[in-house]
Amino acid sequence: MKILIADDNSKNLYMLEVLLKGVGHKVVTAKNGIEALGKLRANKFDGIISDILMPNMDGFRLIRECKKDPLLRQIPVIFYTATYTEKKDEEFGLSLGVIRYIIKPVEPEELLRQIHEAFLEHARSPRDFTMIPVPDEETFSREYNQRIGAKLDKKGWELKESEEKYCLLYENSMDAILLTSPDGSIQSANPAACALFQRTEDEIIKTGRNGVFDTTDPRFSTALEERARTGRVKEELTLLRKDGTRFPSEISSSIFTDRTGQKRSSMIIRDITERKEAEEELKHSFERFKTVMDGLDALVYVVDMETYNLLFINKYGKDVWGDIEGKVCWQTIQKDQSGPCPFCTNDRLVDSNGNPTGTYHWDFQNTVTHQWYDCRDSAIRWIDGRLVRLEIATDITGHKQIEEQLKHFNEELEKQVAGRTEALNKSLHEKEILFKEVHHRVKNNMQIIISLLNLQARTIDDPVVLKTIKDSQSRIRAMALVHERLYQSGDISSINLKDYIQFLAKGLLSFYGVKPQLIRVTINAPAIRVNIDTAIPLGLIVNELISNAIKYAFPEERRGEIVIDITKDKNDIFLVVRDNGVGIPADFDWRDAKSLGLRLVNSLVEQLQGTIELDRSAGTAFKIVVKEKK
């Protein structure tokens, strides 16, 4: 943009000129409204930034003259003042047609942001100033005299104070600022730069660019070349303090021509040591995540859902497939050279907007080792925001072997059933023992996973990771309880739903350390029995809803009650989980929640061919209808 600056203070004028040229604008200056008006009529400009209190013609009269001139009225004007700071001053300026009213002083970066924002908004939605009437002289003079009269008596000290504040922006900036020449010499350094480099301004000027920059940093010469080629550069470079210590920094530098025609450059420098330390801490957090995953007796890997590259595979997975991190998933795991396999492109893991949703469950057999795995796929956001597929696979080879044994056993049993009642009863007993053993082993394996997660949690300080581990333990415990109840039951084909939910609720209250006198859980249900394929998803649904109620419905030790109603009509199961807590906010979209818990609830209800509704009329009540799996 070509911008005209009008200001009678040479320091203010120069500083604003340097800032605007530093970001690529062309700048013409004027010291009063008369001079500005002449230059506006002689040249074409894209914008005007004007002080208000100036000799000969001030900013108010300048904009009035511009709006009266058909050739000038559409130029956007910004007022930048330290004198006219009252609300009525701003209202008067806006009524005359300015697009932004800025009060001095403002930090350089904030000032540039406001100027850029004002001109951008005007470009996107330009005001038609031809439709705004110019006040007649009498109306203008009356308001003008009111505005200027109160200011004239204070002009002396206010102007002096505003000039001092404006000049102090350079000196009081929290970022280090250097005014330099492209040849490496330094003309000035603000106090922040002196503190950053542990040198006086004279020492910085004397030592020059090579004394404060680590010239051995390979990015240094590249940055200089880019600035020479494009006129500006933004880069992370290593700098030097007086004592020789090195530190990382972010440099923003531009080349401009000053009023004498000399090439100059500005540098804004920010110490990013803390940011780098935070990045390092994030790296350590990832290392802790890897440590936890490497300790699991399960296969875990993460795949980029756009490139299909393997971002992570734990020790268990490397033992199975080798160190294949960084390689393409479908070429290394699935051995499919024709393109992404159905698992890589599984659209069940994301919604129509491409956001993570639900969990996909499948079995997988390694064609080399012939091991079977129980696999659970989820789409999640990775550390850097990428959408990835997380898979956790548990070895169920023993389970499959038992299934195969049972298959052969049943075939043999069917052949000998006639006339062998006693043998049949014995075989059925052995079958029951085998089924119970399966449930017992599955439950034990889940308990081992819970224990492993518990051990890993003791070494982790990150609250986000700890919460994730605790929520995972709660879900695994809900599934393990089904196998435990079946193992202890005389009927291994189904489970008493009320009995199961009671044990689950009691366990959750204990797991989250809830005081018995604060939250009471009431379960209203007849003796309903359901099979394991229905019990596990129902248990996970209730687990998530009770957990959410415990964590969010009763803040600050508020007393309350959680009520669970269960009824069954033929193949339909009706479930209501309600609480009298603080309720879910009206603007919270629970069907598109970011948390895994509510996404899991919606997915499981869909898996059971059901529906779910939320009633916010009194606390929170989730009303669910699902079909029992056969």
Describe this structure as you would to a colleague.
This protein has 630 residues and is an alpha+beta fold. It folds into 4 domains: 2-169, Rossmann fold (3-Layer(aba) Sandwich); 176-271, 2-Layer Sandwich (Beta-Lactamase), CATH 3.30.450.20; 277-395, PAS domain (Beta-Lactamase, 2-Layer Sandwich), CATH 3.30.450; 508-630, Histidine kinase-like ATPase, C-terminal domain (Heat Shock Protein 90, 2-Layer Sandwich). 46% of the residues lie in helices and 22% in strands. The strands form 5 sheets. It has a 5-stranded parallel sheet with strand order 2-1-3-4-5, sandwiched between helices. A 5-stranded antiparallel sheet has the order 7-6-10-9-8, sandwiched between helices. A hairpin with a 5-residue loop joins strand 9 (246-257) and strand 10. The two termini are 71 Å apart. Mean pLDDT is 82; it is low at 427-439.
Outline:
This protein is an alpha+beta fold and 630 residues long.
Keywords:
single chain; 630 residues; alpha+beta; Rossmann fold; Beta-Lactamase; 4 domains; five-stranded parallel β-sheet; five-stranded antiparallel β-sheet; elongated
